[in-house]
Amino acid sequence: MRLLVTGRDGQVAQALLALSGSDVDVVALGRPTLDLTDRASIERAIAEHRPDVVVNAAAYTAVDKAESDEAAAYAVNAEGAGHVAAAAAAAGLPVVHISTDYVFAGDKAGPYVESDPTGPQGAYGRSKLEGERLVAEANPNHAILRTAWVYGPYGANFLKTMLRLSQTRDLLRVVADQRGTPTYAPDIAEGIVAVSRALESAPGDASKRGVFHMVSEGETTWAGFAEAIFSRLAETSGKHVTVEPITTADYPTPAKRPANSRLDTTRFRQSFGHSLPEWTEGVSRCMAALAANEAP
Ligand SMILES: NC(=O)C1=CN([C@@H]2O[C@H](COP(=O)(O)OP(=O)(O)OC[C@H]3O[C@@H](n4cnc5c(N)ncnc54)[C@H](O)[C@@H]3O)[C@@H](O)[C@H]2O)C=CC1
């Protein structure tokens, strides 16, 4: 099976590339070769590489910047996602599209299921929600995977920021009133491969089409995530960092974040017979990979 993946240098795209081998062949392309805002560039890439499934892992992911740059976020996350889905549909191919917990308002008491009403709190979430709509409209043969709190050995993310700050600080103040699930990019990549196989092998199976919540198992807060990182750091390096829990109000950002980002993964697990490991396992594996210098 060959996957054509957009957004080559992203966390998820890099994790997919790392899986490329004998049973899955991953071609990842980024700008300028493949630009989401240029549908012809996507069509050319499909014609050249002849994938079995197209995976849209590219996105405008600067959540705060999107507040003052909504048109750019919309061009990539909404219209661009629609172009990827339409180009795949024109070639008769399924599309796997990655979306986000930020499509929700975050005011539900429990974990969100796929059919819960959306209510994005900011420009990024609005652009991603519109992307979901345009993908579904352009290509009925789609799986939209909403994930959350992505981190991994590649690219910039919360875990790497915490490790960087730990080099100069013994105490860090971290938000403790947003709940969600840190999700390890290599686990997302495995999930995408499982979904891609299912789309390829079960054409027309409606139970494997539509929107799915795909995050690691378990839940925590950003402060809990930081504590897990620092407890492993203490084990391996002896360095101790204290996490001081703060509230969202103590740490103002241009974009409002959902207080509850928890996603119920039942539909994903039942439809694909696949689940992502506990979030704490990903933290250990990521830190081991970084320590072994497996990634930049
Ligand atoms: N990072 C996170 O915490 C979360 C990410 N997601 C979603 O997961 C997916 C993957 O995210 P990450 O790998 O973390 O993102 P990332 O920011 O690491 O990578 C995104 C890639 O898309 C590329 N890109 C941006 N505009 C483009 C365009 N016009 N054409 C082609 N490529 C373009 C960027 O250059 C970058 O390489 C995205 O759909 C994102 O919205 C969902 C929930 C949380």
Q: Provide the CATH architecture of the domain at 2-156 and 183-218 and 262-277.
A: 3-Layer(aba) Sandwich
Q: What is the arithmetic mean of pLDDT? A: 96
Main sheet record: 6 strands, parallel
Which percent bin holds the helix content?
A: 40-55%
Element string (H = helix, E = strand)? EHEHEHEHEEHEEEHEEHEHH
Stretches where pLDDT falls below 50 for ≥5 residues? Answer: none
The bound ligands are: 1,4-dihydronicotinamide adenine dinucleotide
CATH class of the domain at 2-156 and 183-218 and 262-277: Alpha Beta
C-alpha termini separation: 28 Å
Which range does the strand content fall in?
Answer: 15-25%
Global structural class: alpha/beta
The Cα radius of gyration reads 19 Å
Strand order of the largest sheet: 2-1-3-4-5-10
The backbone outline, from C-alpha atoms, is: globular
Distinct helical segment count = 9
CATH homologous superfamily label of the domain at 2-156 and 183-218 and 262-277: NAD(P)-binding Rossmann-like Domain
Number of separate strands? 12
CATH fold node name of the domain at 2-156 and 183-218 and 262-277: Rossmann fold
Descriptive labels:
globular, 6-stranded parallel β-sheet, 296 residues, alpha/beta, binds 1,4-dihydronicotinamide adenine dinucleotide, single chain, Rossmann fold, two-stranded parallel ribbon
Word description of this protein:
The chain has 296 residues and is of the alpha/beta class. The chain has a domain at 2-156 and 183-218 and 262-277: Rossmann fold (3-Layer(aba) Sandwich). The chain has nine helices and twelve strands. The strands form four sheets. A six-stranded parallel sheet has the order 2-1-3-4-5-10, with helices on both faces. A two-stranded parallel sheet has the order 6-9. The chain has a two-stranded parallel ribbon with strand order 7-12. α2 (39-49) runs parallel beside α3 (70-90) and α3 runs parallel beside α4 (123-138). The longest helix has 21 residues, at 70-90. The protein is globular, with a radius of gyration of 19 Å. The two termini are 28 Å apart. It binds 1,4-dihydronicotinamide adenine dinucleotide. Keywords: NADP, Oxidoreductase. Its EC number is 1.1.1.133. Residues 1-290 form the RmlD-like substrate binding domain.
